[in-house]
Amino acid sequence: VQLVESGGGLVQAGGSLRLSCAVHENGVPIIERGWFRQVPGAQREMVATIHSSGTTTYSDSVKGRSTISRDYAARTVSLQMNKLVPGDSGVYYCKAVAIIDIGKRRDYWGQGTQVTVAS
């Protein structure tokens, strides 16, 4: 499984940004996709996830102003973030949870993309 993120950058507070992640499954079943954020000195934290069933979850900090979605044909998962605030800054990582065997799952991560929100 390979994940390639794109769409990070510098944006002014109040603006919007769309992150995309190309998920190359290579025949491995993926049960969940998501976006995580990490800032220096802190643990990586969940921003939004989307299950293969379509169920989505969001962190409280982005709920209501962000949308995670899948493009099945393009095999991408995207995160649309609106009304950005400086606290949204960080390195955003795409994650895929794969089923590698009966009862076994493995996490795969992209290389990360920097998002900086200027006040």
Report on this structure.
There is one protein chain. With 119 residues, this protein is mainly β. It contains no helices and eleven strands. The strands form two sheets. Strands 2, 4, 5, 6, 9, 10 and 11 form a seven-stranded mixed beta sheet that branches. The N and C termini lie far apart (37 Å).
Topology pattern, helix = H, strand = E: EEEEEEEEEEE
| Topology, number of strands | 11
Based on Cα principal axes, name the global outline: globular
In helices, the fraction of residues equals: under 10%
Oligomeric state of this protein: single chain
How far is it from the N-terminal to the C-terminal residue, by CA?
37 Å
Average residue pLDDT: 96
Strand share of the residues? over 45%
Brief characterization of the structure:
The chain is 0% helix and 61% strand. The protein is mostly beta strands.
Outline the fold blueprint:
Blueprint: E1 2-6, E2 9-12, E3 17-24, E4 30-38, E5 45-51, E6 56-58, E7 66-71, E8 76-81, E9 90-101, E10 104-109, E11 113-118
Parallel strand pairs: 2-11
Antiparallel strand pairs: 1-3, 3-8, 4-5, 4-9, 5-6, 7-8, 9-10, 9-11
